[in-house]
Each structure stands twice: as C-alpha cells, then as structure tokens.
Specification:
InterPro entries: DegT/StrS_aminotransferase (IPR000653), PyrdxlP-dep_Trfase (IPR015424), PyrdxlP-dep_Trfase_major (IPR015421), PyrdxlP-dep_Trfase_small (IPR015422)
Low-confidence stretches: none
Keywords: Aminotransferase, Pyridoxal phosphate, Transferase
GO molecular function, one term: transaminase activity
Distance between the termini: 22 Å
CATH architecture of the largest domain: 3-Layer(aba) Sandwich
Structural class: alpha/beta
Radius of gyration: 21 Å
Helix content: 25-40%
Number of strands: 13
Family: Belongs to the DegT/DnrJ/EryC1 family.
Strand order of the largest sheet: 1-9-8-5-4-2-3
Bound molecules: pyridoxal-5'-phosphate
Largest sheet: 7 strands, mixed
Shape: globular
CATH topology of the largest domain: Aspartate Aminotransferase, domain 2
Pfam family, one: DegT_DnrJ_EryC1
CATH class of the largest domain: Alpha Beta
Length: 370
C-alpha cells in the first residue's frame, strides 16, 4: 500500500560517485577538462553552438542580460508568473522589470500583453520568456514582438531541459538561453549550477569573460565581471545526468498522461494544457484546484507532498513593490496564484503512486474530508 508520495526524486548512481571521486583525486577543481566536456556535450545534446557553464540559473540570466548589453534603466519585459530570479537578475543590474500577464491555459507569457507593454515601455531592451513548468512559451509570438521592438530574446529555460517548441529545443530559439541545475530540476549537477547557451560567438565570449572576472583569453581584465564559474565536480555530475535528461522528459510526460487521464473526470481540477507546437517536460505537474489550500492539507494527511509554484506573482513581492515605480494589475496571474497546486512529479513516479494521489483528490471532493 502506498503511504507516502514524495514530491520529487533525484537520480544518484555509482557512476556519478565514481566520476566525482576521480575529480577529487585529480586535484583539478576549476576550469578543467570536466567543464570543457560538459559544455561541449550540452551544446551537442541541444543542438546549439555554444554552452557556457555557470554557478546557477540566476548567474546564467544575469550574464545573459549583461552579455546582451542590458544596462541601467533599460526595460526588461518578463512574465509575472515565474521564480523570483527572473526579476532579480534584471533588477540587480538596475534594469527595470516590466511585468506581463500570462496565458490562462499555458501559464506562459501572454503575447498580446507583451506587445502592449513593449509599446509603452521607455527603452525596451530585452524580453525574457519563461518556459514555465517545462512547457515552452509561444516563441513565434515572442519573436514577432521582439523583432518589432528590437528586443534581445533571453529564454529562461531553467525548468525546461529537453523541452521542444516546433521541434527546436527550448533555450536555443532566442538569442540566449539560460538553464538551472538546482537539485530539484529535471537534471542537476549535485548542487547549484547553470548553463548559458547561444549560437552567437560574441555573446558566448562575453559570457565566458564575465563569468571569470571579465578576463579575456589573454589574461587581461577587459570587463568588470565576477566569479560565476561552475566547478569540476559539478560538471562531472552534470555530464552523467545529461545522458538521461531526454529519457527523463519522456518518463515525466508518461506520468503526466496518467494524471491527465485519471483527473479528467474531476470537475474541480483543471489539468495542464499543452500547446500544439510544444513538447512539455513537466518539471512540475500543476493543476488548478477548487479549495486549493484545504485540498493540500488533506493530501498531506494522506502522505502526498505538494507545492505551490508560485504563491505570489512577481509584482506582488514586497521588494518589487518597493523598488519598481508602478506595478500593474495582471488579472490572470493574480487569480492563478490562489488556485495552482503542484502534484508529485518525477521520472520514477509509478502508477500506484499516481493512483494514490488521484484517489485522495477524489475523496476530498467526494466529501471525505475531516
Ligand atoms: C524559472 C526559473 N528561473 C530562474 C531560476 C534560477 O535558477 P537557480 O536557482 O539555479 O539560480 C529558477 C530555478 O530555481 C527557475 O525555476
């Protein structure tokens, strides 16, 4: 009998332990062969010219903005429904985040609202579409608006390793793409880590310099950078996960299909919608639920771990309200944050566990609550 359904699970193998142990023995901990191999394998896997390993997804976003020349006072358009880092990367450069509402079905940036916000923004410089929960945003629409307003497209692909939009990998469609390897992501490096990808050699060079104190290959410091490097242990760990990430995306899709089918007849639950052009990798399986908070505590009593991603829209966080001159009303995201709940999701979830979660949801709405 299923008693506990964990929210997520992380793959650790003997191979990973051996790989990282051999880095320990090598004595070479930064800027070595593991990072070089990880970058080149990542670029090959996702069909992109350049991959630059960095210390986190936040670092990747921050370096992407800097490499793209985003400066103090420039407007960076982004969906209000995302993790805080999408905004903090821009705000730490003193750029101005401009918050855009999201599509009520896919939860990704609403292209009509993007166009409206771009047309009003003073100094529009970049747009950061977020492939939220593992489903690519409407990249065709984003590209159209970006071309019209001269925006650099920086994809926040932190939740979307191996997702595809019209056959192309998420993160490789815009000018730059940013990935996170935070432990709960679809692949990790065994701690914090990130990757910035681009087909543009100049942007890649700029990112490489900026991650390493602004130092060029000749050893001269030509930019003001910081230390955003990814170390050798993590690169070694990441190389192993990279080999599986495509399969894990497929396994997550299979588990999502089980939930979809099982929850189709529960009228109080809205299951995720997948756009035709997208191959979703379900970093998170998020439903909209009536009486969300009561449902969560009922599920917790039945041993089911759940989460909320995210409890607040970006423009509602106190620090943002304080720092950004005016915050808009964004009705879709403001409604969503009170209704969404993330159910357990990882590649190794089994049918019995999905059944346990769904049966508990049915019991809740069927009146079996305490
Ligand atoms: C959408 C999104 N953007 C940015 C980040 C930041 O990545 P990290 O935690 O690796 O800095 C994350 C992950 O936490 C994320 O989910």
């Amino acid at each position: 009998m299923v008693e506990h359904v964990p929210f997520t699970e992380i793959h650790v193998s003997d191979d990973i332990v051996d790989r990282t142990a051999s880095v320990v023995r090598s004595g070479r901990y930064v800027d070595g062969p593991e990072l070089e191999a990880f970058e080149s394998e990542f670029a090959d896997a996702f069909d992109v010219e350049h991959a630059v390993g960095v210390s986190s997804g936040t670092s990747a976003l921050s370096l992407a903005l800097r490499a793209a020349g985003v400066d103090e006072g420039d407007a960076v358009l982004m969906p209000a429904h995302t993790f805080f880092a999408t905004a903090s990367a821009a705000m730490n450069l003193d750029a101005k985040p401009v918050f855009v509402d999201v599509d009520p079905e896919t939860y990704a940036i609403d292209v009509d609202d993007l166009e409206a916000k771009a047309s009003f923004a003073a100094r529009p410089a970049a747009v950061v579409p977020v492939h939220i929960y593992g489903q690519p945003a409407d990249m065709e629409g984003v590209r159209r608006v970006a071309d019209e307003y001269g925006l650099t497209v920086i994809e926040d692909s932190c939740q979307a390793h191996a997702a595809r939009y019209d056959g192309e990998y998420a993160g490789t469609i815009g000018d730059l793409g940013c990935f996170s390897f935070y432990p709960s992501k679809n692949m990790t490096v065994g701690g914090d880590g990130g990757m910035l990808v681009t087909d543009d050699a100049e942007l890649a060079d700029a990112a490489r310099r900026l991650r390493n104190q602004g130092r060029n290959p000749a050893g001269v410091h030509v930019d003001l950078g910081l230390n955003y490097r990814l170390d050798e242990f993590k690169a070694a760990f990441g190389r192993e996960h990279l080999q599986h990430v495509e399969d894990w995306g497929r396994m997550r899709r299979e588990n999502a299909a089980l939930y979809d089918e099982r929850l189709a007849d529960v009228p109080q639950i809205t299951t995720p919608t997948v756009a035709e052009e997208c191959e979703h990798v379900y970093h998170l399986y998020v439903v909209q639920a009536d009486e969300r908070d009561a449902l969560r505590s009922f599920l917790s009593d039945r041993g089911v771990e759940t989460g909320i991603h995210y409890e607040h829209a970006l423009h509602q966080h106190p620090v943002i309200v304080e720092e950004v001159d005016s915050t808009p009303r964004l009705p879709v995201v403001e409604r969503l944050v009170d209704q969404i709940v993330s159910l357990p999701m990882h590649p190794w979830l089994d049918e019995r566990e999905v059944e346990h979660v769904c049966a508990a949801i049915e019991d809740f709405y069927g009146g079996e609550r305490p």
